[in-house]
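Example for tutorial group B:
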């Protein structure tokens, strides 16, 4: 019969030893996790009730916001109707003013053209006077 080598027995023993240690460590960790879960359960329950209360409050706030938005929409619709009326009035005034200005525009254009001609003639005269002042005069003759 074939014998099992001693090295193989040692390796198997070490492997089983570490397996038992790992199993024991896992049991200890699981025990501590169960205790931690038991300690956290009241806190989680407390938070759950607080969250449920907050959800109720948020729902009531959302309902109020919906009511407010409906009121604001109604107010904006009313203001929009008034603004349309005002804009119509302003538009009709602008049309009337535009029609009146169409008749006055040629007169304003003529007056502005006459003013430009006047200013051009005036500046030309001033330049001529300045040029005449610069020309030297002849000396008087001796007798």
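The residue assignment follows.
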């Amino acid at each position: 019969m074939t014998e099992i080598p001693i090295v193989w027995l040692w390796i198997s023993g070490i492997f089983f030893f570490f397996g038992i240690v790992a199993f024991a460590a896992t049991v200890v960790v699981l025990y501590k996790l169960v205790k931690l879960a038991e300690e956290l359960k009241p806190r989680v329950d407390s938070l759950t009730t607080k969250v449920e209360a907050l959800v109720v409050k948020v729902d009531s706030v959302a309902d109020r916001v919906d009511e407010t938005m409906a009121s604001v929409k109604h107010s904006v619709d009313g203001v929009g109707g008034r603004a349309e009326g005002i804009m119509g009035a302003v538009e009709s005034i602008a049309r009337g003013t535009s029609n009146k200005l169409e008749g006055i525009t040629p007169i304003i254009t003529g007056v502005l053209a006459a003013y430009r001609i006047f200013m051009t003639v005036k500046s030309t005269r001033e330049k001529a006077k300045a040029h005449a002042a610069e020309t030297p005069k002849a000396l008087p003759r001796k007798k």
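The helical segments are 6-134. Compare this with the pattern of hydrophobic and polar residues in the output above.
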